[in-house]
């Protein structure tokens, strides 16, 4: 097994899970949104768990759709390799016809660090992966009078991010899933993503792995490192941005919290 194998596996599993979710959308339809969300979560989780059990039988897995007992399995804390997956990130968007801002996350935590990951954006027809990290767009401070864009939740944008945008001269762009938001930073649709108010490891592990491989800034909103495979998988806040903007955003966040 090589590191390259893990990159490729993450990409292959995320992509195939996404293709299966597109088929679930076509087969089930959008008339019963709750049923579509439930089937999407269930089927993608089963596919990823069965695939990893077959292809990486000695590794542990932390999945959003796991039971509480599975998440608290003590073997995960002593394991050297843990796959952190979100079978369907953005179930609300998945169940809304025409929306493409949902994702599949597959990441590998290996001995204390994220070493491989992939974010499939099935309805956008692409997968961002550490196997071939995307090239970060350049930020031109002279463009748009120095203004830039921050991705936020389309349903519950944190109030402090609205204040931060005013302070640093940014515009807010509502996007669905966390994976879609971080991917938007990497593809040039926005320049930053700031969130506080509740997330878990599976919401960010895969997109952060890709972001770090691409050279983007990724941290907690106080600038401290993002850590994974913790006993409590809560990871409530995050900042991902183009590297040139990180200092200004962190300074703005500090000013708001004084």
Automatic annotation (TrEMBL):
Keyword terms of this UniProt record: Hydrolase, Magnesium, Metal-binding
Source organism, top-level taxon: Bacteria
Molecular function in Gene Ontology: 3'(2'),5'-bisphosphate nucleotidase activity
Coiled coil: none
Catalytic activity: adenosine 3',5'-bisphosphate + H2O = AMP + phosphate; a myo-inositol phosphate + H2O = myo-inositol + phosphate
Pfam family, one: Inositol_P
Family annotation (CDD domains): CysQ (cd01638)
Enzyme nomenclature, EC number: 3.1.3.25
Alphabetized InterPro entries for the sequence: CysQ/Inositol_MonoPase, Inositol_monoP_metal-BS, Inositol_monophosphatase-like, Inositol_monophosphatase_CS
Signal peptide: none
EC supergroup of this enzyme: hydrolase
PANTHER family: 3'(2'),5'-BISPHOSPHATE NUCLEOTIDASE 1
Name by which UniProt lists this protein: inositol-phosphate phosphatase
Source organism of the structure: Nonomuraea guangzhouensis
